[in-house]
Amino acid sequence: MGRPTKLTPELAELLCEARANGHGTRGAAAACGISRSTLQLWLSKGEEGEDPDPIYSDFSARFTRAGAKAIGRLVNAVFEDAVGGVEIKRTVRPDGSEEVQVTPPNGVVALKALAQLDPDDWQPRKALEVSGPNAGPVEVAQSEVIEGIRERVRKAKERRAAEAARAEQAKQQDSGEEHGG
Question: Which of 33, 86, 101, 123 has its CB 3.0 to 4.6 Å from that of 119, i.e. a possible disulfide?
């Protein structure tokens, strides 16, 4: 039998509270006076095999839910900022009528959120400018220059496609972990 765990119910509650308040694993661990590696060990013990120790499996599930709640609150805040309409001031006039001031839509936040949610359609595109020697024009009469440009563009497209495929694969893995395991 090994030594007893330092993961007490009180410490587990503090860690989950830190996570729910937006701390990552490093910040939650530091706020509670433990190392990140200890926290990660406890979380991994909660996900081990078919019969993990209930102390760790309960903690791991609670810590994960706390993180999801924090993310949910932030997503809601981003959405509210993006669409606007959040009441910021209400004034009651002497005649009894009310004036309500609300936040305007925030297009920058909306575009950034869209780029994260649907990158194929909303990710900003970067322009590529090609110039010749000494920032001069590209000589189009030289076929090797044109072929060199075509080759660079082809390689750039391949890199982008590979990055998109890796991002999609990671997104699917994350989605599978959230829903299935």
Answer: 123
pTM: 0.57
Say which DSSP state 161 is in: H
Instruction: Tell me the per-residue pLDDT of 62-87, one tens digit each, with 9 for 90 and over.
Output: 999 999 999 999 999 999 999 998 89
176: in domain = yes
For 117-142, the pLDDT digits (tens) are 888 888 888 888 888 888 888 766 66
Closest CA to 109 of 86, 76, 82: 82
- Amino acid at the residue 28: A
115 & 140 share domain: no
Look up the domain containing 100 and give its range: 84-125
**Rounded Cα gap, residues 77 and 150, in angstroms:** 44
Q: Is residue 70 part of a domain?
A: yes
